[in-house]
Amino acid sequence: MGVIQASSKAVTISKFISHDEESSYIEVPFSVPEGTEQIKVKMEVIQTGAASSIIDLGVKDPNRVRGWSGGARTEFFIHQAKATPGYLHGEIEAGEWAVILGAYKVAVKGCTVNLAIEYSLEEFRWLKGDLHTHSVHSDGTYTLREKADICESAGLDFLGLTDHNTSSQNEAYPRDVNTLFIPGMELTTNWGHLNLFGVKDPIRDFRVNTMEELHGRLNEARENGAYISLNHPYCRHTGWRWDWDFDYDCVEVWNGPWREDNQAALDWWQDQLVSGRRLVAVGGSDVHRPDPYVIHGMPTTWVFGKSLTSSEILKSIDKGHVVLSYSPKGPFISVTCGTSMTGDVCEDRNQPIQLNVKDVQYSDVVKVISNHGIEKEILIEEGQDMLDLSWAAEDRSFYRVEVWRYFPEVKSRLLAALSNPIYFSNLIC
Ligand SMILES: [Zn+2]
Ligand SMILES: [Zn+2]
Fold first, then answer.
1. What angle do CA 195, 198, 203 make, to 5 degrees?
2. DSSP secondary structure string, 164-226?
3. What is the pLDDT averaged over residues 350-368?
4. What is the Å distance from ligand 1's center to 237 Cα?
């Protein structure tokens, strides 16, 4: 046995199994580095002579057998949040793991097993998804598998499952797909809707008839570890009609296709920011069924996180490390100042603010907005697909960016992208 090729991300191990080893379980150790998000193992059995060898496949982590597929598979993956059927997702502890080879039948001349082991390490990157969607578990028509397929083809990394007043969807979502499902529930009351994210069963009873009951439900959700989003607060049918003084983490300023109700939420959010409040804005399609305009990933919420797990994504949303775009294809806004990004409070006003907007197109309008209102409006010229801009913070308490685009199919100029603000610490007079 020897390592024939190695890099930080992949290793290939070759192991000869002799006929004498038939019926035994052979461990092939490999070490897993700190900060591993996913492991993928591929097995190839090189036969010798006419008789075939049959080798079963499994794996153990430093503490236990972590999965077994017998002769049914020649490859598997284990991710912190997902895994091949037969394997357990969860924390990927650093240390010595071992592929378990079950030498079920070994030819007289033996066989060689090649194992390709690939690691993906945690690394900060922009993950994109849709935080607000429905399925057959409430009044949607999509099964969870259909949703996973749709998200995969749209290039979405994650999907919030927010069926109305139920949590059965969170017991049923697949974990053998590329899409990460974020468990959720849309607490749907007669006077407004809230998404409860990150736990499978945030509340035992959804019924709310008084403000006191609402506080009680939200306390319960909090104690269970949920993050709370105020949904479509200015929707003309299902907007927020409770008292606004309650406990939540973020506001859905962009629900489905851009329209007046969203504009009202955006205006309200701007007022909140101007008043000094630091509140994270998110988006979600609220898709229920096939529709020409309400589509998974429209809008897309981009989150800067180090692993594709619910806890990491929700933690990063809580920090405001979030930008929105009307589709998974962008446009994409990046605003930084030194080492600070959207959502952060920059302590150094002397560093220039850097704006980069990707995937803009001719006639898009990029607006830079602060607590003083619109500061800059830039019209994208013919042939231009990117905008770079830099300016000084001066005495402003935040800057945020919007991209507006003319959509000929609806003959209107609509929001195409929105950043969360980058904040500046209070001026000392
Ligand atoms: Zn709703
Ligand atoms: Zn909804």
1. 65
2. BT--THHHH--SSSSSEEEEEEEEEETTEEEEEES-S---S-----SHHHHHHHHHHHHHTT-
3. 97
4. 9
The rounded Å distance from CA 316 to ligand 1 centre is 23
Asked if 103 and 24 count as a contact pair (C-beta separation under 8 A), the reply is yes
Residue 91: per-residue pLDDT: 96
How far, in Å, from the CA of 256 to the mean position of ligand 2?
10
Distance (angstroms) between ligand 2 centre and the Cα of 254 equals 12
pLDDT band at 9 (very low <50, low <70, confident <90, very high): confident
Q: How far apart are CA 23 and CA 19, in angstroms?
A: 9
Tens digits of residue pLDDT in 206-236: 999 999 999 999 999 999 999 999 999 999 9
Tokens of 30: 């490999």
| pLDDT value at residue 3 | 37
Mapped onto helix, strand or coil, the DSSP state of residue 144 is helix
Who contacts 61 (Cβ-Cβ below 8 Å, separation ≥6)?
32, 92, 93, 95, 97
- If you measure from the C-alpha of residue 133 to the centroid of ligand 1, how many angstroms do you get, rounded to a whole number? 10
Domains of the chain in start order, with CATH, are 2-121 (2.60.120.380), 123-324 (3.20.20.140), 330-429 (2.60.40.10)
Q: Which residues lie below 8 Å from residue 302, measured CB to CB, with a gap of 6+?
A: 126, 127, 128, 322, 323, 324, 325, 332
Residue 230: nearest ligand to its CA? 1
Tell me the pLDDT tens digit for each residue of 101-114.
Answer: 999 999 999 999 99
For residue 149 the two structure tokens come to 């397929």
- Give the ranges where 275-366 is alpha helix by DSSP (H): 310-318
Determine the distance separating the centroid of ligand 1 and the alpha carbon of 79, expressed in angstroms: 31
The number of residues in the chain equals 429
> For residue 241, how many other CB atoms are within 10 A of its CB?
11
